[in-house]
Amino acid sequence: MREIPLNIQLSALPTSPGVYQFYDSTNSILYVGKAKNLKKRVSSYFNKNHEYGKTRVLVKKIRTIKHIVVPTESDALLLENNLIKELKPRYNVLLKDDKSYPWLCLKNERFPRFFPTRRVIKDGSEYFGPYTSMKTVRVLLDLIKSVYPLRTCNYDLSADKINSGKYKVCLEYHLGNCKGPCEGYQSIVEYDRQIADIREIVKGNFKSSITYFKSQMKALAQEMKFEEAQEIKDKIDVLENYQVKSTIVNPKISNVDVFSIISDNALAYVNFLQLAHGSIIRSHTMEIKKKLEEKDEDLLELAIVEIRNRFKSDSKELYVPFNVAVSPGLKVTVPKLGDKKRILDLSERNAKFFRQERFNQIKIIDPDRHTNRIMAQMKKDIRLSAEPRHIECFDNSNIQGSNPVAACVVFRDGKPSKKEYRHYNIKTVTGPDDFASMEEVVYRRYKRLQEEMQPLPQLIVIDGGKGQLSSALKSLDLLGLRGKIAIIGIAKRLEEIYFPEDPIPLYLDKKSESLKIIQYLRNEAHRFGITFHRNKRSKGAISSELVGINGVGEKTAQQLLKKFKSVKRIKEATLESLSEEIGVSKAKKIYESFRKE
């Protein structure tokens, strides 16, 4: 694959949070960084003169830019840390050491302790995190300890030692921060119930705790203990606003490969995320050209084998969007809920961004290929017999039947052809009758095209539902064009696509390019029609102001407006200049009428 120029790679970057990676001409990793806005941050490297020579050298070496999209800036920070430790890029100085982000540890012991740590030891303890700042950890710990008194000592609280009276309660017990399990003042059952509640809080499930806090707050308020009630309220606010989960790192998910696939008529995009020790250590997206109408299942099975061989992955479990046939010994999981589903969704999101990035690059490098792809996709999505290279869209505009007009906009190869736009004054319809107006304007448009032997469109789009579509069809029947031109209606409320003689509408994906082009057509027709309607209504109001003067008719009013352009200028005009245009007698009446005002 030929090298894509950097300016095109930059223009196709998304504006989402994520991690970017710079590679040189030999495809060696140079630098890993994080960004709240990928496009803005990466572009900044190439848009300014850098103070440090090291940065200037880095920028000169960049040939390829890759990125991984994540939900939040905090996730980007965590993923950046993981990738730098794994890839060890030459130009990254920070985060190469063995330091890590803080975790919360629930120690594997009788009467478990709950404390912060930067070291993950595989001794059966539970770890939650990592967190992006120690401050976050402390806030959460303070919250938990203020609600659930836990022990802080490191004694071995076995049943034998407690029963033998080996330990005595410490100051923490007397301060109310511990219930004294060391002397048997707190049972293991009660303590474990507290630990279960804490697990839910740390995982982000605050519902039961918040319910408990609210009842406690109301009880304190009824007892007139407002300061204590306010402290409980502060805890509720912290819980409700706290975001603890991260889709980037989960200590329970390890040694897993994640695959997702997005496809269209010609191409498929397979994203691969590799997880090790609870962290994403690699992301790669593969573009596959379809030779025949292969199914996504077949393409994904081939891609899994290819990518795992390429990256020498020995993971024993796969997360995929649907069941696939793989080598014996590999466990296949199709996630439906929870962290596993969030990681699969993240993979799919990266595949979609990669696909859009490729489309944007092709749009710049090869616009004809971009157009051909969109036309082929529209043909498939809207069930057409031919690609809709020439599309026309109709819309009506009136206010309570006044100044009824219609607009026809024309698109060529998915783009507006504004020189072919047409306005129509409705001539045969009285009152606000959209159906009759649509019937008239469609008949007039294609009657004229037939008479002038002009080419007809491949697709007609009617702004409206079944009623407007039926009216347009009547005109096509009269002209003998039924079946020769594809015609659809688009309803505004749910963006339903209606077909002739089909009571069930089609719902296209809200993000599909086919729907976006149809919406663009509809919006252009509405804009073009409403502008014409407003201008016509405005001119009518201006003319009526002049016609209201005794002795001045419609013809005279239009003559003056053509000369002076507005009523304001007519009011400011001298008697001589008015006389030159319409004669002394009429000029005098207008001049004196405005002076009286």
TrEMBL record:
One GO term of the biological process aspect: SOS response
MF-aspect GO terms: DNA binding; excinuclease ABC activity
One Gene Ontology CC term in the entry: cytoplasm
Ranges of residues in domain GIY-YIG: 15-93
CDD domains in the cross-refs: GIY-YIG_UvrC_Cho (cd10434)
Localization per Swiss-Prot or TrEMBL: Cytoplasm
Pfam annotation, one family: HHH_5
Keyword DNA-binding: no
Domain UVR: start-end pairs: 207-242
InterPro entries cross-referenced by the UniProt entry: GIY-YIG_endonuc (IPR000305), GIY-YIG_endonuc_sf (IPR035901), GIY-YIG_UvrC_Cho (IPR047296), RuvA_2-like (IPR010994), UVR_dom (IPR001943), UVR_dom_sf (IPR036876), UvrABC_protein_C (IPR050066), UvrC (IPR004791)
Residue ranges constituting the UvrC family homology region profile domain according to the UniProt record: 262-476
Sorted UniProt keywords: Cytoplasm, DNA damage, DNA excision, DNA repair, Excision nuclease, SOS response
Stated role: The UvrABC repair system catalyzes the recognition and processing of DNA lesions. UvrC both incises the 5' and 3' sides of the lesion. The N-terminal half is responsible for the 3' incision and the C-terminal half is responsible for the 5' incision.
Quaternary structure note: Interacts with UvrB in an incision complex.
Family annotation (NCBIfam families): uvrC
Family recorded in the similarity comment: Belongs to the UvrC family.
Protein name as catalogued: UvrABC system protein C
Species the sequence originates in: Maribacter ulvicola
Gene that specifies this protein: uvrC
